[in-house]
Design a protein that fits this description.
- By secondary structure, the chain is α/β, with parallel strands linked by helices.
- Among the domains are: 125 residues, no CATH class; 133 residues, Rossmann fold; 89 residues, Serine Threonine Protein Phosphatase 5, Tetratricopeptide repeat, CATH 1.25.40; 123 residues, no CATH class.
- The protein is 61% helix and 7% strand.
- It is built from 32 helices and 8 strands.
- The strands form 2 sheets. Strands 3, 4, 5, 6, 7 and 8 form a 6-stranded mixed sheet that branches.
- Strand 6 and strand 7 form a beta hairpin.
- Helix 13 runs antiparallel to helix 14 and helix 19 crosses helix 30.
- The longest helix is centred in the N-terminal third of the chain and has 31 residues.
Length: 751
């Protein structure tokens, strides 16, 4: 019997001759060392042995692989986490985790091997540097790969978790009901640094308007005005205010009077860190005619600056950001459909629906520049609001500010802004630079779909005394003009008294109208040619011939015929046709043929003075009840009231109106209107019997670009007392160059 002793080392302590031979004996195996002999140090000194052991255990390889992969993870995380909706603190957690896990990876690399038989402790070095049975001659690359992949798997999974869970977390928070949520903020009362009670009242209104503007931006949650008023006179810190109101940001500011301007200074502050994110100043003229509009303009500019900065801090991201983008895109498609229908029908209801849809998009995406331009474009074209609607004018001014602020390089921004100031505000000097830039951008864009930038600019030019330049602009139109747009050519030719050139152009257009069979265009263009011919010759014969040729034309409406009869002096015929005008169906009803002044003149000339005076008084009352007209065209409005009062016999009222007209004349605002007002004043002075002043005004009118010219005045005053005075003849002869044949004066002025 033999006893089997335990194995203490990797060789038996004793061997019994009765033991069986091993199955696979090793030939020529060296005799094992004696138990009491020391193990030789085959690795050299202790320090060299340690680094050699690191190398043997492949710790260097694992450390390098870990460092490379960790660096890649940090780079990827820094560039992608925000796009996937992963909070900033997660990125910091990843970096710290990678650093802390590095020694763990090194220790694991030292202690373990991954072998064919599984994970095992790394065997120690024996005297001959042999390895345990079952291990490979060198460490498997699988261990290195696993060490490198570990941080990727851990932190990749963490990133995925936060990406998928970010929306659920957000949806359960304060902005759960919003397509896109930036954060919460409070607007503290604005402090007045210098000024009086007016400045304090302005600051209160500005605070309320700023709250209104920010509250209208859906991605923001704004604390109520009531909750912020208590901080007007308190000196609490921003952190404390943020905690009390439960907001992430605070807007605070001050108002001071600097010279003749208000200066609003605002700061945007993050409450948890008391960090200033933004500071801006806004200067405005204190002497404003519309304080409420001024407050809206300043408040919106401050609100959009705040919104844009906060959006940059918290952009739409993750799955929620994708849903937000899809919702905005869907609303834009709906707006596009409404726009197409609106432009096709010019329908009031469709226009209001389109504006409503645009407002919803702006509320959801306040800084969307394209939608602001669309809003301006649609608003400017609503027929029922055009020119006289005060609320519309204020809204247009705000829309212009918004579009210019957010889309300063879009040609439509300038074309529609300039068109508003040109037509609705009658301020061609302000419109001119806007329209010039609009046309420049339009031509640079190269997508020529219409001629309107050219038409608006040419109109502004001839209204500012640049009629020759206006014609040059019209010659650049990229699209063949429509017949209904001939008015844009007619004005510059008439204002520059280039009648011969204008008639040649119109005859070419008439040939085109005949070629395509457009009967209405033929009628309109033929009438323009007749008028030009009449003004150039100083004779009504061309208009008489036109009327005779078109008398049977079914397109010659009652309003059109009334205008012709008034020009020709057939007042009874004029009154007959004017009584038959149907404004709802007559395309020429807006012409002068149906004006109350013309009816009053026709009644007086026909001998019905009592009814004529009644019409004149009604006209005066109607004009005086509309203050907008005195804001828009004060010179001509007061001059017209002066003429009517003079015709009625109200001399003092006439002189008062004339004085107001003289005081409000401003050639720098609208040059043709300035000359036109002088022409109307000439009629007023004529009615008052002041021949010298009347002729002085006529001389001024003929010296500038107006629709009135020498030939037209000869027709207007042919049978009047003024037309037979030497002063009138002197004025006409002074401007004889505006006539085709000066010799006509020899037969016109006869004893």
């Amino acid at each position: 019997m033999c006893f089997e002793l335990p194995i203490v080392f990797n060789f038996p302590l004793f061997a019994d001759i009765s033991d069986p031979m091993p199955e696979n004996p090793q030939p020529d195996s060296p005799e094992p060392p004696k138990l009491d002999s020391p193990e030789p140090d085959i690795q050299g000194p202790r320090s060299a042995s340690f680094f050699a052991e690191l190398k043997r255990r492949k710790v260097y390889r694992v450390a390098v692989a870990y460092a490379v992969v960790a660096w890649l993870i940090i780079q990827i995380a820094s560039n992608t986490f925000s796009s996937f909706g992963i909070p900033d603190w997660v990125f910091r957690f990843v970096v710290i985790g990678l650093i802390l896990c590095f020694p763990v990876a090194v220790i694991l690399a030292w202690a373990f091997d991954i072998t064919r038989d599984g994970v095992k402790l790394t065997s120690p070095v024996n005297g001959k540097a042999t390895k345990a049975k079952g291990t490979s001659n060198k460490k498997s690359w699988l261990s290195v790969s696993l060490a490198a992949a570990a941080p990727t798997l851990i932190f990749g999974g963490l990133a995925t978790y936060f990406y998928l869970g970010a929306d659920d977390a957000a949806d359960s928070g304060l902005g759960a009901d919003k397509l896109y949520y930036i954060g919460s903020l409070a607007v503290l009362p604005i402090q007045v640094i210098s000024g009086d009670d007016e400045d304090a009242a302005f600051a209160v209104g500005l605070h309320e308007e700023l709250l209104t503007q920010l509250s209208g931006m859906d991605p923001l949650s704004v604390a109520s005005r009531t909750s912020t008023l208590k901080y007007r006179d308190q000196s609490k810190g921003i952190r404390e205010i943020g905690k009390e109101l439960g907001v992430e940001y605070v807007v605070e500011g001050s108002l001071q009077l600097v010279g003749s301007q208000w200066r609003l200074t605002l700061q945007l502050i993050e409450t948890n860190s008391d960090r200033h994110l933004q500071a801006r100043s806004y200067d405005r003229d204190r002497q404003s005619d519309n304080v409420l509009l001024l407050q809206k303009q300043i408040a919106w500019e401050a609100a959009i600056d705040t919104y844009i900065h906060l959006k940059e801090e918290n952009p739409p991201k993750g799955m929620r950001g994708e849903r937000y983008g899809a919702a905005i895109s869907e609303m834009k498609d709906e707006l596009e459909e409404l726009e197409v229908r609106f432009w096709a029908d010019a329908n009031r209801t469709l226009g209001e629906e389109a504006l409503s849809k645009a407002r919803k998009i702006i509320a959801a995406s306040p800084d969307d520049s394209d939608i602001h331009v669309k809003y301006l474009t649609i608003l400017g074209q609503l027929p029922h609001l055009f020119v006289s609607h005060e609320g519309w004018r204020a809204e247009m001014m705000l829309a212009i500010d918004h579009a210019l602020r957010l889309s300063p390089e879009h040609f439509d921004t300038y074309v529609h802004s300039g068109g508003f100031y040109l037509i609705a505000e009658h301020r061609p000097n302000k419109a001119l630079p806007l329209l010039q830039k609009g046309l420049k951008l339009y031509e640079e864009n190269g997508d020529f779909s219409h001629n309107w930038p050219y038409y608006h600019l040419s109109s502004a030019m001839h209204l500012t005394g640049k009629s020759a330049a206006a014609l040059e602009v019209l010659k650049r139109v990229p699209i063949e003009p429509e017949f209904g747009q001939m008015l844009y050519w007619e004005g510059p030719y008439e204002l520059t008294r280039r009648f011969e050139e204008g008639m040649a152009f119109m005859r070419g257009q008439l040939d085109k109208a005949i070629e395509v069979g457009d009967a209405k265009a033929q009628l309109d263009i033929a009438y323009t040619i007749a008028r030009f011919e009449s003004y150039w010759s100083g004779s009504n014969q061309p208009i008489e011939s036109f009327y005779e040729n078109e008398i049977e034309n079914l397109l010659l409406s009652h309003a059109f015929e009334a205008e012709l009869l008034f020009i020709l002096g057939d007042y009874a015929g004029y009154l007959r046709e004017a009584a038959l005008i149907d404004p709802s169906s007559d395309p020429y009803a807006s012409n002068a043929g149906d004006s109350m002044i013309n009816r009053a003149i026709a009644l007086r000339e026909s001998g019905n003075e009592q009814l004529a005076y009644s019409y004149m008084q009604n006209t005066i009352r109607g004009m005086e009840s509309n203050p907008f007209i005195f804001e828009l065209i004060p010179g001509t409005a007061y001059a017209s009231i002066g003429v009517l009062n003079a015709m009625i016999g109200n001399e003092q009222a006439a002189r008062d109106a004339i004085e107001k007209s003289e005081a409000s004349l401003d050639p720098s605002r609208d040059l043709p209107l300035y000359y036109m007002a002088n022409g109307i004043l000439a009629f007023a002075y004529s009615e008052l019997g002041e021949v010298e002043k009347a002729c002085e005004k006529l001389d001024i009118m003929l010296s500038g670009p107006t629709g009135s010219c020498t030939g037209r005045l000869m027709l207007d005053f042919e049978d009047s007392e003024l037309g037979r005075t030497p002063q009138f003849e002197a004025v006409i002869r002074k401007h004889v160059d505006q006539l085709r044949d000066p010799e006509i004066l020899d037969t016109y002025f006869v004893e």
